[in-house]
User: Fold this.
Amino acid sequence: MEKKYISTRNQQKEINFYQAIVQGIGSDGGLLVPDFDFTKMDLEALMKLDYVDLATEVLSTFVPEDGKELIHEACKNAYGKGLFPKNVVPVKKAGDVFVAELFHGQTAAFKDMALSLLPYLMTLSLKQLNEQREVMILAATSGDTGKAALEGFKDVPGTCIKVFYPLDGVSMIQQQQMVSQTGNNVKVIGIHGNFDDAQTAVKKAFGSQELKEASDKHNVFLSSANSINVGRLIPQIVYYFHSYFELVRNNEIKLGDEINFCVPSGNFGNCLAGYFAKQMGLPVNKFICASNKNNILTDFFTTGKYDANREFYKTNAPAMDILVSSNLERLVWFMTKDGDKVRSYMDKLNQDGVYEVDKEVFEKIKDQFKAGCLNEQEVLETIKSCYNETGYLLDTHTAVGYGVLKRYQHESGDDTKTVLLATASPYKFPESVYKAIYGEELNVYDAIDKLHEKTGVMIPKPLVGIKDREVLHKQAIDKSEIVDFIKSEIEAM
Assistant:
């Protein structure tokens, strides 16, 4: 059976895996999804594998049959060459919660898990398609995607990458990581606007006839490093299997027992990857989707209504400061398998800022997903209580998950063993973490040193000496200028 990919909005012809990676987004503005049944995995066989081989087995179910060796080579390059620790995702305990640490890659955030692999998927796809044009990778970021994408694509032949970030919508550490990025093919641009503005403009760029004509003229094509690209999404499935197997290996559960996953979520790609894992046979009871004060996902999972007509908040968990949660569109497609219906929902969202799924669809969603949110003060209180009670140091985003999980357990009485996905090192947001535990406000770099001194928790290698790195990217533009900027970059190639 040939494995085809289609758009959630039903207006694009079928394409194969390699075309989906390179294209990035549906030609109709929808997101690309696999139009085939997920492969049910043999858990007993998978459990014996290391991370590289586990990733190979999982990801090869999404590619043409003759592509497995290519996928193995890509996984080996991403996960087997010392960029991650030997046990790529350590699973630790904080009280009765299992914490899967997804932040041991090059940028100390979970985006490394997929963005270390995506450049290899991109280059092998280009080769398979015999593509000679230059690829311009576009990425909007609320903080972590940008640095991870820059690190992944820097100096990759045949590609260049442009990252757009909100000037006052990321942490100081995230900004410093991006603006000090080296590489001959990278450019980082601050925007006067928020993440949703950047993401909307990047999506618009892919549908722009003007940019298409400019790209054709200059022998360039556009692709994406955001989780709108299916090549960003599917590598995230792997760590769900890995985390589950770690619990089995440590005799916390038996193979076949169901567990819960709690996922701090903004753009919903991380949580959606877990849903894919469940469809592939991973024994999951519930997904608990955790939001910060921008609680649009919490409202959706409790009402079935997605309403973006609300105030946007800048919070101490900035990577989750999102009101347009792109990957939710994919979940709605999987729950309906009706591209025309999804298109009507998205048209309503674009026109009115709101849509509501049918009752039948909502019942299916509610059966698998629970949700909750924390405000900024609750985030700080959660960091403090978790550290005082368990000795485990949470970053602000993972604290959102921990706090929501504790509340869910208390209110529901659900005592299913749960894995919390830890999305970033506490040292990415040190001033908030330090303030939470010690009640003192320090500047970001002093907070790193003091936090290490008082807790003994190691500073991740990518963040050592970060304050002394030279700022290489100083450009800033208005959100309304993003598409024109992309056009000028194409014309300059």
